[in-house]
Design brief:
Elements (H helix, E strand, L loop, with lengths): L20 H12 L6 H30 L8 H8 L8 E8 L5 H18 L5 E7 L26 E9 L7 E4 L5 E6 L13 H13 L1 H13 L18 H7 L2 H13 L6 E10 L6 E2 L1 H15 L5 E10 L11 E3 L4 E4 L24 E7 L8 E3 L6 E4 L3 E5 L5 E3 L2 E3 L3 E2 L5 H14 L9 H33 L7 H23 L2 H19 L2 H6 L4 H41 L1
Parallel strand pairs: 1-2, 1-3, 3-5, 6-8, 6-11, 7-17, 10-12, 11-14
Antiparallel strand pairs: 4-5, 9-10, 13-14, 15-16
Length: 593
């Protein structure tokens, strides 16, 4: 037992140090390790991570999928493409020509019809546009010929399916047949010598050849225009395996066979005319650089000269009319001023300066009123100091601005007050007659009405057939564009109303094609108008157009800042648990082995 005076330090024993420093380091490290987790803590952590992932998988992901999924209604894509490629419908135009022969025996009239039809078929170079002769039911029989007078009857006129009525009238003082087309109807009177009534044994009588030639001349411009439309749409060559015989040529061959003058006239008319619209807004404007005239009898002038034409155009498009009067409407500062021509004793505008005549910066000309395009008609009354005013090269007082409208320079009689000439304060309906007759002609030109023949009803019937073909091809092309857009953008939404519009478009396209094939052109145009409207509505759907400009990179930029802070801890915790489970599985497997 140690003594009380012993030094405590003498009782400290020296602990021998290990000779290897590595052993000391491992022991100190082992002393710093945390205690092992309890099984309850491991199970709790596993349950927490599993609960988070269960919420993500079974609640969060379905809600995200439901709220962000893109609805794509079913579209008949192959059928839409077939319409665009011309595989479903090839437009044909069988024009029915009604033949009236009240002074012929029925057998003679039937023989004349057969020989004329045979001549037409032999000379028809375009199978999509052909003439079909039909004998009128009221053709006189032998016993009642004496009661028929040589006057045109209203029976058969005005029928939508009858392109032309040919009425045969004998005249004793003729040596050769002649034809006259009525200016107010679609009737062609053919006067012939009684000696040219075809005999039953004749195979090619002169009267048949004459009638066939007149019919071909009447429909030459229409046939060339339709061939041009089909050629531009690439539908004319859809049937490339068909032989280009005399009665089955392609549109390009028809265009090559017409005269250069006619081809230039058709091309010029198509360039100047406006694109088809369901509704056109007509704006009649009176402009004058002074204070007079300040009023005009516009309502009476429109009702007298414009309204009848708009009623005739009603099957093709709808029209609204707006008017305005603008005083002190001066020329543009940059526009060339009129020059006085002593030889014509008038103020003249050069032809190359007509494009700068409209002062678009100061004249209140609205480019569009409502949904449809606006056709502007400008009635300009120059100041007395610059009256009369006309175009220098042609001496005309009017011109057309392609795809925009028309201008008329009105030079009214001047009144003298205190030796100062002045324009009348009011323009009457009679004073507006020349201007509005010109406006009506300009309107027909801007709408694409053919220039020949002289009969306006005949030309309007031609326009109906041209518009029916144009709208059918346009709606078909829109369907093809929509199908290609849908296939190229899988993430674009397709609302149910788009599918309904596509279904309506295809249905009306089928109806239009059927009506064309049967020769019901007004019904075909009505169906084609609906098809074009529905096709445009489906293609320019607002939700679809907006999605076209929303790329996938924008989605990444939206989701990454939201999901990154939450997803990284969950993913790291899941990986750790997977590693732990794998390690435990390997340990149990090692113990068993």
């Amino acid at each position: 037992m140690p003594g009380e005076n012993d030094d405590p330090r003498s009782r400290i024993h020296t602990i021998p140090q290990p000779s290897n420093p590595t052993v000391m380091s491992s022991k100190s490290t082992a002393q710093r390790l945390p205690p092992p987790e309890k099984p309850e803590a491991i199970r709790t952590r596993f349950k927490v991570i599993a609960a988070f992932w269960a919420v993500v998988i079974f609640l969060g992901f379905p809600i995200w999928w439901k709220t962000t999924s893109i609805y794509r209604a079913h579209l008949p894509l192959q059928e839409m493409v077939d319409w665009a490629d011309g595989k479903t419908c090839r437009p044909v135009f069988p024009l029915e020509i009604r033949l009236e022969a009240p002074y012929m025996q029925r057998s003679e009239a039937q023989h004349l019809l057969r020989t004329t039809q045979h001549t037409l078929d032999d000379h028809n170079e375009f199978s999509a546009h052909h003439l079909r002769l039909k004998l009128a039911e009221d053709t006189a029989s032998p016993e009642d010929n004496a009661n028929v007078q040589a006057q045109p009857t209203p029976d058969g006129l005005g029928k939508a399916d009858t392109a032309l009525t040919v009425r045969l009238l004998p005249q004793d003082d003729l040596t050769a047949p002649k034809a006259e087309l009525h200016a107010e109807t679609t009737q062609l009177d053919v006067m012939y010598p009684p000696s040219q009534v075809p005999a039953p044994s004749s195979s090619n009588p002169p009267l048949s050849a004459y009638i066939a030639g007149e019919l071909q001349n009447l429909f030459t411009e229409e046939k060339a225009t339709i061939a041009q439309i089909l050629s531009d749409s690439n539908l004319g060559g859809a049937n490339t395996n068909a032989p280009a015989s005399s009665n089955n040529q392609q549109p390009s061959a028809v265009l090559n066979s017409i005269s250069p003058q006619l081809a230039e006239s058709i091309s010029r008319r198509l360039r100047r005319s406006m694109k088809y619209a369901e509704t056109y807004h007509l704006a009649f404007s009176l402009f004058t650089p002074g204070s007079e005239p300040s009023s005009w009898d516009i309502q009476a002038a429109v009702e007298e000269y414009i309204s009848p034409l708009l009623q005739a155009l009603a099957p093709i498009s709808n029209f609204t009319v707006d008017t305005q009067v603008q005083l002190y409407a001066t020329f543009s500062p940059t526009a060339p001023l009129p020059e006085y021509d002593e030889t014509q004793a008038a103020w003249t505008l050069k032809k190359e300066d007509l494009s700068a005549f409209i002062n678009a910066a100061e004249w209140p000309l609205s480019p569009s009123i409502g949904n449809g395009p606006t056709i502007n008609f400008i009635l300009y009354v120059p100041t007395p100091s610059q009256s009369p005013m006309l175009v220098k090269e042609s001496g005309a007082t009017s011109w057309i601005i392609p795809q925009w409208g028309g201008v008329f320079l009105l030079n009214p009689p001047l009144s003298t007050v205190n030796d100062n000439p002045s324009n009348p304060a009011h323009l009457s309906k009679e004073a507006l007659r020349a201007a509005f007759l010109t406006f009506s002609h300009q309107l027909l030109t801007l709408l694409g009405v053919p220039t020949t023949p002289t009969s306006l009803p005949f030309r309007l019937q031609t326009l109906i057939r041209i518009r029916a073909a144009t709208l059918l091809l346009s709606a078909s092309s829109t369907m093809g564009s929509l199908a290609r857009l849908t296939e190229s953008l899988p993430s674009i939404p397709i609302p149910a109303n788009v599918a309904a519009s596509v279904s309506a478009t295809l249905s009306h396209l089928t109806s239009a094609c059927t009506h064309l094939r049967d020769g019901r052109f007004e019904a075909a145009l009505a169906s084609a108008r609906v098809a074009e409207t529905e096709a445009e509505r489906s293609f320019f759907e607002k939700t679809m157009v907006g999605q076209m400009y929303f790329p996938d990179e924008h989605k990444v930029a939206v989701y990454l800042p939201l999901l990154g802070p939450v997803g990284v801890p969950l993913l790291v915790g899941l990986l750790k648990e997977v590693k732990r489970l794998v390690a435990e599985w390997k340990a149990r497997r090692a113990i068993r082995s």
